[in-house]
Amino acid sequence: MRAVAYDEFGGELDLRELPDPAPAPHGAVIRVEATGLCRSDWHGWQGHDPDIRVLPHVPGHELAGVVEAVGAEVRGWRPGARVTVPFVCACGSCAACQAGEQQVCERQTQPGFTHWGSFAELVSIDHADVNLVALPEEMSYATAASLGCRFATSFRAVDQVAEVRPGEWVAVHGCGGVGLSAIMIATAVGARVVAVDISGDALHLAELAGATHFVDGSAGDSATQVRELTRGGAHVSIDALGSPRTCAASVESLRRRGRHVQVGLLPGAATPVPMGRVIAQELRLLGSHGMAAHAYPRMLELIRAGVLHPDQLVTRTIGLADAGKALASIGSVAGVTMIMPRGPF
């Protein structure tokens, strides 16, 4: 198969021929029709993720495609099925999975991290009966692939973790793929959204996604600006980027008894959090990590009904040959970049 791979962290990302994967007895191999470009893959390429232990490595974890082959133990799927997967692939048998919380599975695997990912023509997925999600016939592969990490993560962060309610103020720090998804979902719930970013292009896309108030994060104290715009602070604030600065600003953007949701990854150095404010104002600090396959139907139904439009967040489509360069320069193009291994692009 053709795939994009690297031989050292931070090294060249090149397109090469690699062996085709074979399905595990409980797994499946998916022929990739679309895969998203995500900052998490950039972190992996930089060596920030301890799950990447063997090089060379193929990145990519947001995907949609067609089942190519299944293992002997798989009961619910056959070749030819149109599918997507959560970026957290669960084992189905640990205590967390038995409680229905597959997104925090104790033995989770993740394509692009624990094994070769979807910047390739083929990718293997573990525990297919737990992790594959059937696609509506009318949904494009590009739309489906955009759900796998950013949109599904944002959906659960807004709808289930933060429990955003109509009329609440929601501040979103970082208007990349995760942030734009969160803005669209919060707006659909009936919230009033403040978008925070340092890029004018990103803030423009945030307006298209439904944000009504905007803060240029490069122009000063963004938390103070959010509190002023919302007359006391946001009810919910989401760090969709993942940096010490945006995490602290998100917490400081809240009103009393507000909810901070951390979605963006925070690798490396310790992150200072204003805990005095957390205690004095009884703030809640919440983490959100993907969404289980069994929770997809509600999100898919809202997309089918035209309430949510994740396809509008895709601003660029490229082929595998351009995927390495795009990953190395992630953040230079606003919106979501979609890679189509077989074209057109």
UniProtKB/TrEMBL annotation:
Domain Enoyl reductase (ER) per the UniProt entry, residue ranges: 10-339
Requisite cofactors: Zn(2+)
Keyword Metal-binding: yes
SUPFAM superfamilies, A to Z: GroES-like (SSF50129), NAD(P)-binding Rossmann-fold domains (SSF51735)
Repeat in keyword set: no
CDD domains: Zn_ADH6
SMART domains, per database record: PKS_ER
Keyword terms of this UniProt record: Metal-binding, Oxidoreductase, Zinc
InterPro entries: ADH-like_C, ADH-like_N, ADH_Zn_CS, ER, GroES-like_sf, NAD(P)-bd_dom_sf, Zn_alcohol_dh
Family: Belongs to the zinc-containing alcohol dehydrogenase family.
Protein name: Zinc-dependent alcohol dehydrogenase family protein
Source species of the chain: Nonomuraea ferruginea
